[in-house]
Each structure stands twice: as C-alpha cells, then as structure tokens.
Design a protein that fits this description.
The protein is an alpha+beta fold and 131 residues long. It has two helices and eight strands; from the N terminus they run E-E-E-E-E-H-E-H-E-E. Helix 1 packs parallel to helix 2. The radius of gyration is 14 Å and the shape is globular.
Length: 131
C-alpha cells in the first residue's frame, strides 16, 4: 500500500508566496518546493546579489531537511533556476561552499523570470530520509 503524502511548511523558513507547502513527504521520499533566497525573519531577500541569495536558499534547505529527518547527504537531485546565466559561476561558488563536500545530481536552467520579485535564483530538490 502506498504511503499518504504529508505536506509541511516549517515556521523558520520563508512563507510560501502561493498556495503550496514547502515540503511534501511520502514514505522516505522528500520533495522540497522551489525556494528563493528569502530571510525568514524579514520575509525579504537575503541580499540583492546571487551569492547571498544562494547561501540563504541552502540554509533554508538545511532547516527544511532537518525538519523531516534528512540532511545534505541524503539529497538526490537539485534543480536550479537562474534568471541570468552570467551569474552561473558566482552561484556555483556560493553553492559549493554552502553544500560542503557532498555533490548530488543537479540541473541548472536559465529562466526569463521568477515568482519572487527581485529573486535572481530559486532552487528545489528531492531527497530521502536518513536511515
């Protein structure tokens, strides 16, 4: 029998900007919605540059994963949506530093716009629960 899907929005991350939850979990499978680099205390972008927004997204991912018994070592895949591919190298620098040594599968796509005004990047991911 398939597991029911549980949806979760932790209180210590940005508020959703639409009708969705940040996390959907079924069994040990975890899906985290596209997340912008928003500081949860102010609900404003963590900065106007790609590095600060990327660092904030990774920090938010850490909180969300911890809330459902997971962590970076259990990420299967990350999707990254960049508003400007010229930011690719700087995003990579911030992403690599924030993620540490673990390197999950990843896709980067250039997009014309993003839902959060001023956002330069959003990311979503799939992961599994810790054993």
């Amino acid at each position: 029998m398939a597991s029911k899907v549980k949806t979760i929005t932790p209180s210590d991350v940005m508020s959703p900007i639409g009708p969705y939850s940040h996390i959907a979990k079924s069994g040990n499978f975890i899906s985290i919605s596209a997340t912008a680099g928003v500081d949860p205390t102010t609900q404003k972008l963590a900065g106007l540059d790609i590095k600060s927004q990327t660092r904030q997204i990774i920090h938010s991912f850490e909180k969300m994963l911890n809330s459902v018994n997971s962590d970076f070592a259990h990420i299967l895949h990350v999707n990254i949506f960049l508003k400007d591919m010229k930011d690719y190298a700087a995003m990579n620098d911030a992403y690599g530093a924030a993620m540490g040594a673990y390197r999950p599968a990843r896709t980067v796509v250039g997009v014309a716009s993003l839902p959060k005004t001023g956002a330069l990047v959003t990311m979503n991911l799939t992961a599994v629960e810790k054993d």
